[in-house]
Structure formats: structure tokens, C-alpha cells
């Protein structure tokens, strides 16, 4: 009989054929199927998921809701092939309703400290530090998602004209990202270090010292490490990441500071938001408007502007 790990291979291959980026879900699902295989379970059931949850370790309901959604998607596919598989109920995790966490807005000093700490990461040839200071700095100045940055190929980087091409974003669409001259200089500097160490290569732009692509797992590990160095996360045992501001908050910070600048310059926010929405790769502009609601300073600026307009209409 086919094991759940073998079924997972089929499921992941199918979804990747549709263009999905499954690096993080695969890590979670591999742990789930390995647990099931060790127990001799061949079918996904509610009891199996809850037993795995009890054995896997403590985490918030939000984290377990996310894990549930991954396993639930797998169970929904597998139920089409295996009559004994249960499609896990969406309400299995109490309080599963999704709420977006409030973004952490980095100060310029904090971003500078993070990039400096990344530049000091130890490595044999120096490529580790070059990769991560460049990746984290790039996200801070462009608002790219972490996997968008890591998935950029060399052919998608035009340093002469100052453009990056995101071939496939979270939503399956591509876009061009114009970058500042200072960013092209930083990317050029990194590329020179990479080519000196690895020689000319094709494929991904950001590579590790063994020549393989820099990945999401390494990004989160190194970001946790430099976050502890600069005091944004506390010390952890057993190489745990801990909690604190995330890589994704660099994207949030970019968006919030862009909108704040527009308010202070007196620009027409509704018109500008469509530009930012396209730049960030949002499918719908309301996803970009969320930043105004999520950050008190922006909410107050929006309220003040609305009140001024109302007074103008009333007078």
C-alpha cells in the first residue's frame, strides 16, 4: 500500500505543475506524513491530525490554523483517490478565523542594523554575508516578498537599465520592478562576489556557497540570527527562531513609508494607491488599502484628510 509520504510526492508534483510555490507547505506536510508513516497510518483522519498536533509541540491557534489549511488541502485531494481519507473540517482548530497580524514598522536605524549584522555573518568564503545583506536590503527598498526575491533568475536582473523582473508572484502574475541606482550598485557588488567565488553561473541570482539557490528556510534562519544580534528577538535554545518582527515586515515597512510620504506631500492617495498595488503585486487595491487601517499613524492622517474635505464641502 502506498504511504502518505508517497502520496504527498504525487500531490506536490501536481500542484507544482500548476505553478504553485510550495517550499514552506512542503516542510510542514513532510513532517505530518513522516509522523503518519512512523505510526503506520495510511489514511488522513481527524484523529491522526489531532494526535500529530499533540505530539508536534506548542504553537498559537493561528499557526495551527495555517498548518490545518495545508493538511486539509492535501486531505481534500487525497479523498478523491482514497475512500478512507477524511477531509479535515475547517473548524477543527478553535478560533480559526483569519486575522492579519499588525505589521511591525521598522525604523531606518533598525533596517540599517539588520543589514549590517547580515554583512557580518560568518562564512568560509564570504558569500553567506553577501547574499543575506543583499536580499534583506533588497526587500526593504522594493517591498518584494521573500520568495519573489529568492526566485529571481540572473536573466531577470537588468542592472544596466535598473529593472528586476518578477516572473511569477504569489498570485501567479509577473511584473517589472524599477530599482534605484543605489540598489543596482548593491546588486552589482553582490554579483561580483558571487562570480568570484562560484564562477559564471546560470539560473538563480542569489546562490549559496555550495552553488545551490538560497532558499526560504535559510532566509528565515539567518534573519532570526541577525534579529537576535540587533536585539529584535531574544536568545533561543536549539537554533529556534523565536518570535519578533519578521522578514515580511520589511515589505510592510516599505509600503507604509511610501504611503506616509504621499500623505505628507499632499498627493491624491486614491490615485497613487493603484500604482503601489501594481508595484507590490496585489491582485486587488483593497489589499493595499489595508495598510492604512493597520497603522494608526496612517489611519489618523486619512481621518484628518477626510475631515478637511468634509469641512470644505460644508462651507
* CATH architecture level-2 label of the largest domain: Orthogonal Bundle
Instruction: Please compute the radius of gyration using only Cα atoms.
Output: 22 Å
- Would you tell me which CATH topology of the largest domain applies? hpI Integrase, Chain A
| Secondary structural class | mainly alpha
Beta-strand content bin? under 5%
Task: Give me a quick take on this structure.
With 315 residues, the protein is mostly helical. Helices cover 58% and strands 3% of the residues.
Task: Describe the fold and architecture.
The protein has 315 residues and is mainly α. The chain has three domains: 4-92; 108-229, hpI Integrase, Chain A; 248-314. Helices cover 58% and strands 3% of the residues. The protein is built from 13 helices and three strands; from the N terminus they run αααααααβββαααααα. It has helices at residues 4-17, 23-39, 46-56, 61-78, 108-119, 127-142, 146-150, 181-198, 216-229, 248-265, 269-280, 285-294, 296-314; strands at residues 157-158, 163-166, 175-178. Helix 6 (127-142) packs antiparallel against helix 8, helix 11 crosses helix 12 and helix 12 crosses helix 13.
